[in-house]
Amino acid sequence: MSVVVSFSIPIALIIATALDTLFAEPPARLHPIVFLGRVIEPVDGTYDRPLLVGTLAAVCIPIGFAAVLGGIVYLVGVVVPQVAPVVAGVLLFTLFSQRMLLETARSVITATKDDLETARHDLRALAGRDAAGLSPEQIRSAATESVAENLADGLVGPLGAFTIGALFITVLDASVFASAVPTSPAVALAVGIAAASWVKAVNTMDSMIGYRSKRVGTPSARLDDLVMWIPARISACFISLAVPSPDPLLSARRWAQNPPSPNSGWPMATLAGALHVKLEKPGVYTLNELASLPTVSEALRGVQVVSRAGRLFILVCVLAGVAIGGT
To answer: What sections of the protein cross the membrane (predicted)?
Structure first.
């Protein structure tokens, strides 16, 4: 078996990370999430039984999306095993986002110094809140909160699912699959991509229709709460590691339940503790209320901390892939 096939999991992770670093996002016309959005969009309608429709959509759409992307990797792995890690890496690149989020956050934070209208306008790409009446400090808080929350949604969730799914198959005895498939690496990559695709689809459905005012989106919102429970807390741990100090994570326990979401409070509260600043969504929640809202330098430092946390998480995934997937 070639080195490429043996180390297919870390190779796919490295390719995905390199593509994110170089290009940030693939072209919209080729982006699987754009196509997924077109599938989800018609679900946002009026129905006699919205919960039933929403439940069917929450179950079927992520499974279908995972089957398509996982199937592509599996077929490539069966035909040309050496190419499968490349295809998996390219698809994984489309399922997570780091560079674009961080760049947008830096731009918004910097704009609060002398171009408040631009900062308010660009904040819409980060946070779903009305920025018209927000002060510069509140805009910086929103941008900082967004990068912390999206560490879980945009990176740890999908990359973690890929790594766990692929390594789970890898550690199983290859003889279990010998009669069904030509190579276990092809199956491992396919399962990893399917797992990442499923998590990303669940999160995308929650983002598009999971609002309190839309009963059809309630099942998607509840499923996302369940799926992101672990990634949110892992993200908080890596933010604390990025400082590095256990204090932010310990402090976060006091504030993490303030936001209405059962998950987003953990990475946001941990980052608030790491920066020693207050983060708040006016009228909804406050984290570390005794501190002050972030200055420009503090908010930019928060972006850097999240960037470092993301790199640490990617490194752990790659090392796990080398240690287990390369055996």
So the answer is: 72-96, 186-205, 309-326
